[in-house]
Amino acid sequence: MTSPALRAVADAARAAAPVSLPEVQADAELLARFDRGYLLPAEVFTEFAARLTASGFRALTIGGRRSFRYHSVYLDTPGLRCFHDHRQGRRLRFKVRERVYEDSGERQFEVKLKGRRGETVKHRRELAAGEIAEGPAARAFLGDVLRDAYGIEAPDGLRPSAITDYRRTTFVAAGQRVTCDTGLVCRDPRTGAAWAVDRRLVVVETKSAGHLTETDRLLHRLGVRAAEFTKYCGALAVLRPDLPANQWRRAVRTAFGRNPGLPRSA
């Protein structure tokens, strides 16, 4: 059965004018950008999306599709260095993941850094058929990125630490993107435990080259404030409640339920 969140996003995407991937890459690729995340109930999202498209945002459309399946495997050290660096707000912090665009089969090895102004800077490299994200070529790429940006070496022992799956619809205007994710499921690769986000919620992220945008102000006018929630840190916070993650607990309760801590089936 279609979830309320998925239905709301699908309806909004159908109502929007289309925009092609080459147009997005030309006008709003935003490999360096400011990200802000929100957790929207389906009924609030419907109002938000109607105003968004009325202001000129279009829906990314590839081969007639406006909804795309994403599979991400996050990598971290045995001691979860990347997670703890984000928890502590360290300036030289990064995330590493393999992202699979399941509808096309494309696989990317991605490194996300924090820039000097607090912006997210993404570096990526396509993974060849049969290549693994923990392999020597990907590690060499990670080392090059970290040395160039931070003057540090790549950590040893990176391995899968969290897995996420979801559907994404993207709305685009000049220099801005709004991603709308539904059906988010987080899995622990060690135990197989899984948590699914509330079926009534849309995980919305605004992405732009500047700070607060008119899109963020629109969300504020609708009574929605940015959530302390990222997919990786939120996933670890719900999958491994023993970890210190107080800054994400409120958003995790909103996203996954009032009493996260016992694994549940997706």
Q: Order of strands across the widest beta sheet?
A: 2-7-6-5-4-8-9-11
What percentage of the residues does DSSP assign to strands (E)? 25-35%
Average per-residue pLDDT, rounded, comes to: 92
Oligomer: single chain
**Helix and strand run:** HEHEHEEHEEEHEEEEHHH
CATH class: Mainly Beta
The structure class reads alpha+beta
Helix coverage percent of residues? 25-40%
The second-level CATH architecture is Beta Barrel
Query: How many strands appear in the DSSP assignment?
Result: 11
Shape: globular
The name of the CATH topology is Hypothetical Protein Pfu-838710-001
Find the CATH superfamily.
Hypothetical Protein Pfu-838710-001
Main sheet makeup: 8 strands, antiparallel, barrel
Radius of gyration: 18 Å
Total of DSSP H or I helical runs spanning 4+ residues:
8
Notes on the structure:
With 266 residues, the chain is of the alpha+beta class. It has a single domain (4-256), classed as Hypothetical Protein Pfu-838710-001 (Beta Barrel), CATH 2.40.320.10. It has eight helices and eleven strands. The protein has helices at 4-15, 21-27, 42-54, 81-87, 136-150, 214-221, 231-239, 246-256, and strands spanning 18-19, 32-41, 58-60, 68-76, 94-101, 106-114, 120-126, 159-173, 176-187, 194-196, 201-208. Strands 2-7-6-5-4-8-9-11 form an eight-stranded antiparallel barrel, surrounded by six helices. It starts with a helix and ends in a 10-residue tail after the last helix. Residues 259-266 have low confidence and may be disordered. InterPro entries: CYTH-like_dom_sf (IPR033469), VTC_domain (IPR018966), VTC_sf (IPR042267). It comes from Streptomyces botrytidirepellens.
